[in-house]
Every structure is written in structure tokens, then in C-alpha cells.
């Protein structure tokens, strides 16, 4: 797609829906079109670095890694404006504080093509506020589905499993000694005890 001018695009859906793949594809296409483009992702340990964004299918692309706090959001804005990026992508946008909604919306107002990729719902099926608030401001929404691991139908939800069993609604964020995993599930097979 040609550079749309100031534009906010949101890619959303559950885990394994292909959000990161779609984000990398769009950034790469803009680069082929000679647009100055950058990808950002949140850091786990809150340090600034450079690393690749990696999709579940192995596709990767270089990115600025920024902390998931307000300084991280300021860093996205500063790097974008200082370096004169015309297109930016932000992966896992739901991990950033709420202020990122205003920041990305403002960057789009300033003529930048902003592509934000983030989870629609948490493991309980509740919206991630950052993704939700970006969706209603978006100029375009790309709503992707994964494949339900139980029945093969389109999956819109992310199932959290602790030691192979559905995670209860009140389960602690970190469970010491447990093996935790996530699966894509449809509405029928998404379970929150
Ligand atoms: P996301 O960023 O939405 O988590 P990715 O772009 O990283 O998704 O990965 C998408 C890839 O995940 C697919 O191309 C496929 O190879 C793989 N995959 C693994 N499990 C599933 C599933 N249940 N449904 C769809 N794709 C899956
Ligand atoms: Mg992803």
C-alpha cells in the first residue's frame, strides 16, 4: 500500500493470529517503497536496546526495544521525530501505559503512518484498555483470527493454561514452579473457571 499520510492503523486479535507477521509485512513494504520506517517493541527487562521482533513462524525484523513505562513511550516519540521516520510500527502495544494512545494518535496527526499491533483480550476475555482505546481512534483496523486448538474454527481468544489446565480468573500473574502456556481458542472453547 502507498504511504497513506498521517494514519493510525491497528492490527489486533488473539495470540497466534499473525499480528506480528502482518506488522512486519507492512513495515517491510513501506521500506521497499523507500519510506523511512522503524519498528518498536516493549522490553521485558525495561532497558533500551536493539533486537529483532520475532513472529511465531520465525519471521523476524530489526526493532528498537523500549521500556514499558512512560519513558519508553517518550522514547518512541523522540526517536520517531528526531530520526524523521515516516512509518512506525509498535508491536505488543498492550504492554505500554495508557499514555501511548495519545502519543500514537498525535504522531498520526503529525503525518506519520502509525501501525500498532496488540492483543484484543486478556486470558479472562477482558479488553486490554490500550488496544481498545486505539481501535476507536484508528483509521483502519485489521482484525485477525487464529485457529482454535480444540475445534479448528476461527479463534478470537487467548486461553491461558497452567500445568495444562485452564487458568482460573483470579490466578496470580506469576505462579512459581508451574508450566504455563497459551493457546488460541474460539468463543466456545475459551474457558475461564
Ligand atoms: P501473533 O503476533 O498474532 O501472536 P505471529 O505473527 O507471531 O502471531 O504468528 C503467526 C503464526 O503462528 C502463524 O503463521 C502460524 O505459523 C503459527 N501458529 C501457531 N499456532 C497457531 C494457531 N493456533 N492458529 C494460527 N496460527 C498458529
Ligand atoms: Mg505477536
TrEMBL record:
UniProt subcellular location: Cytoplasm
EC primary class: transferase
Ligand binding (Zn(2+)): 148, 151, 186, 189
Enzymatic reactions: thymidine + ATP = dTMP + ADP + H(+)
Keyword Transferase recorded: yes
Molecular function in Gene Ontology: ATP binding; identical protein binding; thymidine kinase activity; zinc ion binding
UniProt key word Kinase: yes
Any one of the GO CC terms: cytoplasm
Predominant location: cytoplasm
Similarity comment text for this entry: Belongs to the thymidine kinase family.
HAMAP family: Thymidine_kinase (MF_00124)
PANTHER family linked: THYMIDINE KINASE (PTHR11441), THYMIDINE KINASE, CYTOSOLIC (PTHR11441:SF0)
Name recorded for this polypeptide: Thymidine kinase
Taxonomic classification: Archaea, Methanobacteriati, Methanobacteriota, Thermococci, Thermococcales
Amino acid at each position: 500500500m502507498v504511504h497513506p499520510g498521517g494514519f493510525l492503523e491497528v492490527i489486533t486479535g488473539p495470540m497466534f493470529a499473525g499480528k506480528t507477521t502482518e506488522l512486519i509485512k507492512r513495515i517491510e513494504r513501506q521500506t521497499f517503497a523507500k519510506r523511512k520506517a522503524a519498528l518498536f517493541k516493549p522490553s521485558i527487562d525495561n532497558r533500551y536496546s536493539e533486537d529483532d521482533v520475532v513472529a511465531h513462524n520465525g519471521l523476524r525484523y530489526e526493532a528498537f526495544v523500549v521500556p514499558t513505562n512512560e519513558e519508553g513511550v517518550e522514547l518512541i516519540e523522540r526517536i520517531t521525530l528526531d530520526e524523521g521516520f515516516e512509518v512506525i510500527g509498535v508491536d505488543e502495544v498492550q504492554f505500554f501505559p495508557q499514555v501511548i494512545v495519545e502519543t500514537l494518535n498525535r504522531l498520526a496527526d503529525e503525518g506519520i503512518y502509525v501501525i500498532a499491533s496488540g492483543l484484543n483480550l486478556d486470558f479472562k476475555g477482558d479488553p486490554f484498555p490500550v488496544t481498545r482505546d486505539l481501535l476507536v481512534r484508528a483509521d483502519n483496523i485489521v482484525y485477525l483470527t487464529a485457529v482454535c486448538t480444540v475445534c479448528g474454527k476461527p479463534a478470537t481468544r487467548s486461553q491461558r493454561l497452567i500445568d495444562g489446565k485452564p487458568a482460573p480468573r483470579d490466578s496470580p500473574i506469576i505462579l512459581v514452579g508451574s508450566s504455563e502456556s497459551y493457546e488460541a481458542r474460539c468463543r466456545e472453547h475459551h474457558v475461564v473457571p
